[in-house]
């Protein structure tokens, strides 16, 4: 048993080290991989947001220009433009603040407002943008979109606020958005999300220097090109702390999930190791190696002064020759059903050892403990009958003690028939540990018992004044009325012996007479008592 415990402890040590190492390694790999995936997902979300904002700006510009492309501008000498025409277009398109058509020098040919300058955007691109600008006739800053059409320039003025509105995003991750003019190397519009307000993004009047802008090589910043403007790029940056917070939240959830899974796997492995090195497995191994053996506790007949029988008790011998008492394994053996092969092994060894003893002492019997499990098993009694016939043992020399706490089912016809068959064949039946379970007078009348064993709990109460002491006479009186032979077990004192004899209980068993012993010592004990 020590070797079994040592192997079990060693197995658990290996399990703990292996599980801990693999779990830590798996945590590191999966958390690192998840971190990378989180960064990638964040960048993809950021890219989607900036592309969406870029599409909004491109859509705005295309909408602005589509509305003015209906003007009959020709390659040569376009002088038919009137202020009323342009004002009509401005009226029909509320996002346009002003329109102007200029010649190559920037001189207005016509405009929807009075222009005092000859402003032209100097760019090689056919379509260009500039701003923010302060224009006479308009109270607020505007952006200028310029399209070259032949010998003329078509200029559309849009309020800065209109452009800013199309750049705004409700995403809580975005910190800032800006438009950057690659020709002039400057920011032309900058929007920043206020920290105390999650949305929307607010326009900033003072733009940061280039050195103050987020590094777009970092995962929290990104840019996209506008399809309508060659020289202008759209940039977005996310709040780094939100990026980190989002990533750490995912890491935390994954870590929790991994921890739960790891614990589940650990307990599954622990269960497997327990099963592999469990007491049940040790019992199976002991059965296979025939390491269960019988010891015998004498049963005395004080009236005749002889040893009339012995209760067969089981012991288990470990690999280290350590004797293991049944308290350590009997419960597990009963629950697993392994009590059946243990009992059969015990009976066979008892018959082998005690064959000559039983033949030389016709009135001597061996008593074996059975439970309801034995009666429910389909093969136990078939195997038992083969054994007792094989060794030529008389049925009158075999007693079965059936534990009362098992509470045999009264309406079980198979059980009752089995017990009646045993009694008819001459076997002795005793109800064991009486008083500790649920047996009653009707219970004893229903089953064909011919012996009753008073439990040691009541015997040891003799002379103590305890409540259980007063029950002894009631049990004895009941047993006599039912014509049951009484065996008192757990007898340890002279006072107990005298009390039992005074109440005509002559069959006794306990340490007062002898402890459980091997067969050789039992034979010597019988000779000493019977011929003393």
Automatic annotation (TrEMBL):
Family matches, as Gene3D superfamilies: EAL domain
Family matches, as SUPFAM superfamilies: EAL domain-like
Name of the protein this chain belongs to: Rtn protein
Ranges for domain EAL: 276-530
Transmembrane domains' residue ranges: 12-35, 252-273
UniProtKB keywords: Membrane, Transmembrane, Transmembrane helix
InterPro entries in the cross-refs: Cyclic-di-GMP_PDE-like, EAL_dom, EAL_sf
Gene Ontology MF term list: cyclic-guanylate-specific phosphodiesterase activity
